[in-house]
Amino acid sequence: MTKKRPLITDYFSNVEAVTKRSKSEDDLQVDEKVKTAEGISSDTKPQTKDNSTTNEFTSFDKQRWIDSLTQEQKELLQLEIDTLHISWLSQLYKELTKPYFLNLKKFLQSQQSKTVFPKPQDIYSWSNLTPLPNVRCLILGQDPYHNHNQAHGLAFSVLEPTRPPPSLVNIYKTLAIDYPDTFQIPDYKELSKSGKPGGGNLSKWATNGGVLMLNAVLTVEAHKANSHANKGWEQFTEQVIRVALEYHEKHNSGFVIMGWGTPAQKRLKPFEKILNSGKTKDGNVDGQFLVLKTVHPSPLSAHRGFFNSQVFKKCNDWLEKHGRDGIDWSV
User: Between residues 6 and 281, which one has the greater pLDDT?
Assistant: First the structure.
């Protein structure tokens, strides 16, 4: 598996950290990489080969946009203002003031007496752990885990000390098949004995690997799966996918998309044109994006082809073929 490369957003480190929860040493290191940026001064320009990439985001006048909002909009969108990474906010800010999204925020406001996951400060952790320029792989999920101390804004990932759920265990099994010499499945019992229970936190994939783990729905009521479906999140996250595709098409820096199961594959329907843009006359596709479709890794379906799908190896092979670093899938 390939070593990580420097991230463009290593330079985006000049404002307050997104989360306020207590942090381990690893969490603190992550925070240094994912602080929300409001701009870069002229005397601290990043040393990148293409400053236009950075300028796309820093030219967005966040404060001017905030000043243009009504008082009600400011109150409804405070979480987005505070925690949505600047690279994503600069591309999605118009979406936030559309009626459907404001209605979604009003719905979430009405749920404040209930327990909702993930915690508010973690809802947009996908945006901070995987800023837009860094995306190398998109893994599509459905909605967050709905039990305590699980969801933290990344599809399939769970917080410590939670035991990895069955679908994640199957993901690990597939990785062990793809990389038998280098990938080691986290042993929950051994980790617990050593005083570090868990093994299901995939934050490293996001920060070091550029893996965008995006659920279709970003919140859920405790113990009620899909309880926040059809409230507006699906429309918003579809736009997130569109932004990612259009940005990386523009910059000729395509990525791999994991479509696990029918719901995830249906989410890609609106983007067939851009995803098939490299199709040749003989039907082969070698465009800027690779879609890897397989069954879902849940215990109900994984045995029907997920384990031998080689999705992780195919992902890295494609990235390296197209001049991008492969992903270190270790956890």
Answer: 281
Among residues 61, 67, 143, 328, the one annotated as catalytic is 143
Cβ burial, residue 75 (10 Å; 0-12/13-18/19+): exposed
Sequence-distant (≥ 6) Cβ neighbours of residue 178 within 8 angstroms: 310, 311, 312, 313, 329
Tokens of 302: 């994984």
Give the C-alpha separation, 175 to 312, whole Å: 7
Hey, what are 113's tokens? Answer: 């007496």
- Tally of CA atoms within 13 A in the half-sphere of 225 that contains its CB: 2
What's the sign of the alpha-carbon dihedral 295, 171, 229, 66?
A: negative
Give the relative orientation of helices 99-110 and 86-96 as an angle to the nearest 10 degrees. Answer: 100
**38-68 residue pLDDT tens:** 332 222 222 233 444 556 787 899 999 999 9
Rounded to the nearest 10 degrees, the angle between the axes of helix 311-321 and helix 166-178 is 60
Report pLDDT digits (tens) over 144-169.
999 999 999 999 999 999 999 999 99
Q: How far is CA 226 from CA 35, 81, 110, 120, 230, in A?
A: 30, 26, 17, 18, 9
Residues 6+ apart with CB under 8 A from 163: 188, 197, 198, 199, 200
- Our answer to whether residue 317 is catalytic in this structure is no
Backbone angles phi, psi at 299, to 5 degrees: -55, -25
249: exposed, middle or buried (Cβ count in 10 Å: 0-12, 13-18, 19+): middle
Q: Which helix (H) or strand (E) holds 111?
A: none
Q: Are 330 and 6 in contact (CB under 8 A)?
A: no
User: DSSP characters for 12-26?
Assistant: --SS--S--S---HH
Calpha distance 7→90 (Å, rounded):
18
State which H helix or E strand residue 125 sits in: helix 125-129
DSSP state letter for 270: G
**What digits encode the pLDDT tens for the residues 197-251?**
999 999 999 999 999 999 999 999 999 999 999 999 999 999 999 999 999 999 9
